[in-house]
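Any chance you'd type out a single protein's sequence alongside its tokenized fold?
>
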Amino acid sequence: MSINKFMNPGKFLPAFFILTFNCVGFAREAAFAGKFYPADKEELSKFVDSALAGAVPTRLTGRVRAIIAPHAGYDFSGVMAAYAYNVIDTQYDLVVILGVGHTMAVKGAALLAEGYYETPLGKVPVDEKFAAELIKASPLFENRTEAHLNEHSIEVQLPFLQRRLKKPFKILPAVLNNAGPDELAEIGRMLGRKLKGKKALIVVSTDFSHYPRHEDALAADKTLSLAIAAMDPGYFWLTNRILLAKDVPGLETCACGEAAVGAAMAAVNELGPSRFVELKYADSYDRAPDLTGPEKVVGYIAGAFVGALKVVPGQITLSPGQKKELLSEARTEIENRLLGRKSKNDLLSKDYAFNLPAAVFVTLTENGALRGCVGTIEPRMGLLDAVRYGANAAAFADTRFRPLEKPELEKIKAEISVLSPLKKAPNAKEIVQGKHGVVVVKDGHSGLFLPQVWEQIPGKKDFLSELCFQKAGLERDCWQDKNASIYVFTVDSFRE
């Protein structure tokens, strides 16, 4: 019997689908053989071996600490998974598989802490000692056997491990879904701490966009891949929310394994500086055009987290061409308003970096004098939207100035400042003159100076006093108050 009719390009199974469970030895039997992948041992081995042979391995520098692999039916995503498995070593003592809880809500990481998982290729034992250590270390890890009974995201990864690894290995299977970003970061940090010194691999089992059009899936998934490369779990979480807020037709989720990705990022960061490498991208229509159409697809990314010398989390790097385009967009936004034209309202930019969350200030000058400056201190929207918002607000909503008028259009110049993540400074000594922008917060009041303000107020004491008085509406010496909070940041600034 062909297995195609049972395969699913996405994540959900019919609600009536029931699995049996053999309680003797806590055996998690091969529940999805014949449904998501071949049930026959020889056919399964042949498929996996062929996929691995056909997926050209990417040359990577540094130790592979974790991989991302899709978990749809093999006809849709099996070849994609092979690209991830082709970059790993052939021997591990332990493989941690972070999957998705599609059928049951879990509050943290739901483990299968005893027994084994089974596929047509044999049984894979759970590392019961390691599972017990995690459960003892944090209540965020629980032994939840029932969360694994009707869940495919772990099982479909095992045949690739069974064919790729040359020696017996143990697994720690965990499914996640409902944990918040702080809990996921703690799960990841704990996992990373416990994995230090072990010959171990983390496998993240996730599909990406569900179920936009083919072209929209590409934009959403490539944006999310860039967000993963920022190596900041909170930034990745925010990117998901900003993408979903765009209301792209059909886009129900950006990554069903969002929780698993976030926890894995925290874990590899705990293991040491790491970078993310996208190995291969496709969607269900790319991989199986005879089984599905382009109107409703699921995205698949194969990727690897690799040890690196240094990583700056949450940093967007823009090329000269991208900076030029953003300045053009800022001017176009102002022109549209002045000339009565409709503003652009792109759902997702084809320049994927422009969809990433960003805190941006747009500064306008006229004949060298300030004419408006507005932005956001923290990321609230994608980069392109933030530039358009800042340009519009600087021109027409900065209360220090009257709204811009048509005759001024040719006289103004725009400058865009993309802010780095805010970093809390314990005191003013941490502020570097000429380099840092500063935010001061006290009693519900706050104020910000961009680093460019040092050109007008070069002394640190005067700089901070004016920040408190002019921008925050507080006493000039509030920056010395122990109840005040000081944050520093840098900017990537560029002007017309």
The first helix runs from residue 41 to 54. The CA atoms of residues 375 and 439 lie 13 Å apart.
